[in-house]
Amino acid sequence: MTKKFYQLSARERLEAMDLTPSLTAFYRERQSDEMPNLIENYFADFTLPEGLLRHLVVDGRSYQVPMVTEEPSVVAAANNGARLVGQAGGFQSHQTSQSLLGGQILFQDVAIDELLAYVSEQREAIFEAAKLAKPSMVERGDGLKDVQIRSLAGRRASLDLTVQTGEAMGANAVNTILEAVKAVFQPFSKNIVAAILTNAGHDALVTVTTQMPVSLVGGLAVAKAIVSLSAFGKVDPDRAVTENKGIFNGLSAVVLATGNDYRAVEAAGHAYAGSTGRYQSLSTWKLDDTGEFLLGSLTMPVNIGRLGGAIAAMPMAQRNLELLGAPSLGALKKVIVATGLANNLAALKAVSGPGIQAGHMRMQARTLAIQVGAVGDEVLKVANGLAAEGAVDQNHAKKILGEIRK
Ligand code: NDP
């Protein structure tokens, strides 16, 4: 019997894909032993650049932070923001001490009173089912911690579970517990629509703050400009979404470098940004009462792990955690959020000051040089040539490369 595509080895898949010999050879060189089991239909590794945030100070400790991103200027901005904050003593963090992830059992056409009465009657059975589903968690002091009913519009309700997930993000653990708890609700089986974790992260908030003399950002006028721009992020969703994108530039680069689920972190962050009913920037920048200090803060949910998921399977994630100094899960979360705030500061400073385009142009010139075929030393020569001519486009890049190669 012929195997289905998903049953083939990575090598066999390339043959089945009917590619040109050069494309087959290209992908074959990019197959590894570590990644095939992480996803389905694997046929090659896709590499991304990893850059270093050299010196991030959080709660008095200095970290070297790995950042994985394909976007120019992101790592430079993180270093820039972190350097300024570092001169003021670094970032401070505040967070819930435990890792908590939520789960939902969703009911429809339900009489809320009956459901409430049943939950209160079955409370012990619910906790017992959760314990039997994941005894290892309970042994570690983790597992189901709370159960609440939330009434929703149109005779709907959500049974909200709060699960302590230890050192892991806990997505699979929560789903396993939900399946077991669902069985306790046999009398309501016709009303149950789904049992699934929520990425909302209400109980996983991390806050990072900084207080810096205005002189560090270039004086009171610059600080005021940063504060003004930040205020737009509170009243205009169009501005807020761009500001939050800038935060995730840094934040997600660290989430990715440590093998964590950046989609989960970003979804939770955006939901939190809209939690007042209007989508707002996640960070806040203001002046203190004396006008001498710029105060910055960033609060958002962070459900990640330092083990489990893909972390153990990806050697780069393991090494990156080592590079970070094998931080506790709490420390890793604050490093992630602090990097987001560092990027945010650099972006606000650039946008409210001379504009972001100058720095971007330099990086774009290098990207353009590579696009037109520059290699090695040529990249910088072409980029410098473009900057000197003040025209960053492909035609100029080609012309300069041609001149260099004459
Ligand atoms: P795992 O399924 O890998 O579970 C964690 C593993 O670590 C378990 O085997 C657990 O052992 C073990 N472990 C050892 N020590 C500890 C400790 N101190 N604390 C906690 N666990 C420990 O990972 P997660 O449940 O964290 O799931 C994360 C993955 O799920 C990510 O890859 C994510 O992308 C994915 N995912 C995300 C979803 C979402 O966000 N909506 C949905 C579904 C999946 P034991 O079993 O003995 O407890």
From TrEMBL:
Signal peptide: none
Entry keyword annotation includes Nucleus: no
Pfam families to which the protein is assigned, alphabetical: HMG-CoA_red
GO molecular function: acetyl-CoA C-acetyltransferase activity; hydroxymethylglutaryl-CoA reductase (NADH) activity
Keywords carried by this UniProt record: Acyltransferase, NAD, Oxidoreductase, Transferase
Sections of the chain in a coiled coil: none
Reaction catalysis annotation: (R)-mevalonate + 2 NAD(+) + CoA = (3S)-3-hydroxy-3-methylglutaryl-CoA + 2 NADH + 2 H(+)
Pathway connected to this protein: Metabolic intermediate metabolism; (R)-mevalonate degradation; (S)-3-hydroxy-3-methylglutaryl-CoA from (R)-mevalonate: step 1/1
Recorded superkingdom: Bacteria
Record carries keyword Kinase: no
E.C. number: 1.1.1.88
Major enzyme class: oxidoreductase
PANTHER family noted in UniProt: 3-HYDROXY-3-METHYLGLUTARYL-COENZYME A REDUCTASE
Recorded family membership: Belongs to the HMG-CoA reductase family.
Protein known as: 3-hydroxy-3-methylglutaryl coenzyme A reductase
Organism per entry: Fructobacillus fructosus
